[in-house]
Every structure is written in structure tokens, then in C-alpha cells.
Design brief:
Elements lengths: L6 H20 L4 H13 L1 H11 L6
Helix pairs in contact: 1-2, 1-3, 2-3
Amino acid sequence: MNFGYTGLGGLLVLAGDIWAILNISQSSVSNLKKLIWILVVILLPLLGLILWFLLGPRGKA
């Protein structure tokens, strides 16, 4: 079984991860929280994106 990210699905995950990382870096939370969220998104591409979307910091406050 191959569970890799290929084709259109891989591009969508990559685009979502880049979008999440940009939003995380622009948020107003502490640098440590930014680093943790970015590492989660990078190390767990799809799951990290979903977790960030549901639990991550909101807005630029």
C-alpha cells in the first residue's frame, strides 16, 4: 500500500501547508507557539494542517 502524497492531492496538501505556515508566522502568538505549530504542520502534513485549522491561533489581534 502506498500512502504517499502524489498528483493533485499532494499539490493541495502542499498549498495548504504553505498557507498554514504563512498564517502561523503572521499570527500574534509567542514565537515558541509559532515554532511548535510550524513543526507540527511540516512533520505531519495533512494531520498538522487539519489540527492547525481546528485548534490553531486565530487572527492577528
